[in-house]
Amino acid sequence: MSTDEIVDPSIAPSDQIRRFLFHIGIPVAGVVSAIAIIAGVGWHSYRTVRTGALTLTHDLLVSQQDYIAKEVSSFLMPASAGAIVARDMLEHGVPEVEQKIFTGYSSTMLRNVQQIQSFYIADSDGNFSTLEHGDNNQDITITTLHDVGTPKASFTHQLRDPNGKVLKQWETSAGTYDPRAHAWFIDTVKAGQLAWTHPYVVEVTKQITITAAVPYKGLNGKTYVYAINMSLNHLNNFLNSLRIGESGNAILLDQNGHVVAGHGMAETQARAHGDSDKMTLDPDHFPVMTKAFDQYRVHGYGARTVTVKNKKYVTITAQLPVGKDSWVLLLVAPEDDFSRFAMADGRQNLLFFVLVVLMASGFGLLLFLQARRADRMRGQIAQSRAVASYESHALQSVASYPDLFNPEDNALVLTESLAEQAHARRAAIWRILHDGHTLMCIDSYDRQQDVHSGGFEMSTTDMKSFFDSVSHGDALVVDDAAKDERAVAFYRVYMRSFGSKALFCSPILGSSGPVGVITLEDAPRASLVSHFVDMIAGVTAARFSAQHYTAVAAAKEELESEPTTEEAQRDPSQGFLLRPGALSMHGQEGAPDLASVEGYYPAVAIMVISLSDVVMTAQNDPTSNIKLLDSMATMLQDIAHQCGLYSIRMLGHRVVCVAGWSRTPDKGAVYRIANAALMMRENTLAALSQADLDPVFRIGIDVGPVYGGMLGKDPQAFNLWGDAMGMAEMMAQGAPDVGTIQVSEDVYLDLRQYFLFRERGRFFIPGAGLTRTYVLAGRR
């Protein structure tokens, strides 16, 4: 069981909840409540100030609008009032003094009212006179039209000083000019009362002008029209000079959206090329005013707020009566122009509240972290106690194992306890044999697969750096064994095939020094349970001291306990370790001639080692290649001889080993061939690792009947064939991974009490049907 799963039954859930509420819940809730209250007050204050500021803005704009309306009315009043006064004077005067009345009254008005540009008078016969400014504001120019409608039509111009003295006189052609054809005459006569024209551009002065005209009947019965022309440039300058907030503007428009005066008048006039009908607001240049005027068209007069490009503007539209028509006065100002001080004050207050909230949040966070830290420390203390209790329980389980110090028992509980405590992927116990040059794996436990294996041997010549560290009793902690020079050889031989990376080694110390080592692979908690590892190392050292045999002695004892062959002189021509026919019967010498080996053998154990072509061609130097293969062949022959095999032969990239060559079944043949397979695998892995080659070989084993015999003439070649031979080859070729030993179901049934296996599954074998295969993992 993992230490994370340990629960202290003395701690009730209600106690944990109560402690959480008192240490964390109530303080944090209090801080959060204070923060919420402060934030709410700050937001309410900000909204109140902002609302009041906007109300003040609207009030100020309304006052500004009233002021502008009065100013515009005052601007237009001289024209409307003056036209009525002039009409009464002219209407009751005799025709002979009509011109004098027109000149005297108009010149006085022209000199004293700045916005008046000129005066017109015309009758129904086409007679026409105009009075306007001369070269300066005091002089006047009087123009009279003669012979209207004839080719001789002309204008007589007189420049007079303030005393009426003629300073200059000249004539110009009138062409086809007829005052009766102009709008100011036609509309006024049609209205029969004071009328205002639409703004228009005077061609001579290029100024925008508006005319107030009034009709009357003369004593001679003619219809007259008296007109006063007002220059809107003065009104435009007045509107542009107004300060509405900090960046607000005012503009006058007629009901159709034509610009009369105000902001952007010059740009609008230039864009329209002097055509008053085209002088409208451009949405690209004046988006706020355009949107405000559209709001007026939909909702009528009043104050509103519009948003353009994420910025709010306050707008007011008001009506300005001009004769029978009316103009629209439009005021536009950013929302924060009038209320910036209030908004700034509100933002400062809000910022203050935010700072208070942040400080409160910081204190609350510190309080929370402090409480969490205290809880973590209590949790760590509780976990340490639980771990200590769990380790004590694990050590008690190990100590209570009945055969803990029995040399004949494997004591698998040791590696299982190590792997469980350190959360290691694999835990292994290794022993340094009495020769001082061999490291043998007593037991290796894979926690993920829940399997044990053992019997691996490694020599000091293959892993000198790792062996030196182990033999000196040094502890070894490596995060990446593939990159550490002390552990790289151990990684290549032992760890790489299992996918392990990190390595933890702890020495096993005997009376005369290190006698072994404990290895933990991918163990994240190895350093935390080092004392537990040391205790297991002490137990293992006691077990080693009770064992009075070496690996070599153990191998000899296994061979003596099983049916063995009598060693004889090797026959290098055939790869026999015994002379053919030396064991024609079980355990008995037969005829020495080769013919005696021919015939049927009911239970022969056959092992096939299939070497990849990579091994055969791995060396660029043929001499090195042959040297590597020769050393491997010698090693395999020595192991075959040590394990009592009958024959070993290398055929291309295959090595064929035979055991149990007898007329009656040899029960120990499969055991000997399995022992030889494990030893050959470990030694081959070491040899390939030393040559910096990957394990590119597979091993297959089967047991069954075969035929054997000598073929050909001198020299004769011995050959064997049968189901067992073919199955062994298929087991080697179909092994799941490189460096693995795959066996048939018959081999598994004979050896399952002595070796560890894992099942691969059910497969279809041609000629044999469905059968199960197994992977030989190690000795029990």
From TrEMBL:
In what residue span(s) does the Guanylate cyclase domain sit? 608-732
Major place of localization?
A: membrane
Membrane topology is: Multi-pass membrane protein
- Compartments where found: Cell membrane
Q: Which residues are listed as membrane-spanning?
A: 20-43, 350-369
Q: What Pfam families is this protein classified in?
A: dCache_1, GAF, Guanylate_cyc
| PROSITE patterns named among the record's database cross-references | GUANYLATE_CYCLASE_2 (PS50125)
**Which key words are in the record?**
Cell membrane, Membrane, Transmembrane, Transmembrane helix
- The answer to whether keyword Transmembrane applies is yes
What InterPro entries does the record point to?
A/G_cyclase, dCache_1, GAF, GAF-like_dom_sf, Nucleotide_cyclase
Answer yes or no on keyword Cell membrane: yes
Q: What is this protein called?
A: GAF domain-containing protein
Species assigned in the record? Komagataeibacter medellinensis
